[in-house]
Amino acid sequence: MGMPIAVYPGTQLTGASVMDLVTNPRAQVDAILALHERFHTPVLLTAMDLSAEAEAFGCSVRMEEGEIPTVTGRRATTAEEIRALPIPHPGDRRTGVHLEAAGRLVRLTNGSPVLGELIGPFSLAGRIFGVSESLELSAAEPELLEELLEKTTDFVLEYACAFKQQGVHGVILAEPAAGLLSPRGLARFSSARVHRIVDELQSDDFTIILHNCGARLVHLPQILESGVAGVHFGAPMDMRAALSQAGEEVILSGNLDPSAVFRSGTRQEVEAKAQELLSFAQGRWNFIPSSGCDLPLDTPLENMDAFFETLKGFAA
Predict the structure, then answer these.
(1) Where do the TM regions start and end (predicted)?
(2) Residue 3: inside a domain, yes or no?
(3) Per the confidence metrics, is the pTM higher than 0.90?
């Protein structure tokens, strides 16, 4: 089994725009189902839209027809603004789009696994306060960063709970900014927060997968402290070493480069990279081949074909 993180390439099959997918749950579901029908994907994922939660907190977001929305500016710049920051409710602003899309997928797919995607506490703090500023705060005023993380963790927990109430089988919690922290910083400002969410929500029928596309091997022990059932890594991770160091009780996934391999590579290059990934994971039940991050919307569908066909050939 393998599954790249991919929703936006579905616009090539439905004719919708990125704007449609992040503002209209029906359009998002249509794109997801189109990919599912084309590639017989083993899992259905909601769109990775990591500005939606920040927008709910009041951040300004730039939205363009052919681009994934991005946060502009900083919502909070001082201790006073952090302390006065209200915590939104799941469903506010565009978070409601993704919750409705998740619920529709559950109802339409007759038991196929559905995973919601949402941002993690530290990465959300980075969008609210600024990524570089949050990194500086982790060293200069860690207690103030903890105050902001209390708010972002509260919201992410409630948002993940709202996904669970939609009937999904789990969530992918994206912490890309946490890969910029030192291992000690990651343990304190990301893994400890994720662990709280895991303690509250993870169960036999609700899986939490942590996505960190910036993490390196040095971060692995601290990431595993979070207690998540699975970890999804990006291109910087040495997957061969990670598989040898992690226990079999946690699922590892990744990590073909979404741009260099899936988007810009030839079909033959995708096949070769997928075969390389599979070769050193052979015999490991707890490894799921995937992209290292969200696939760009203009990823050639033929390259996705090559990925899935390589997996089928390897399993035959």
Answers:
(1) none
(2) no
(3) yes
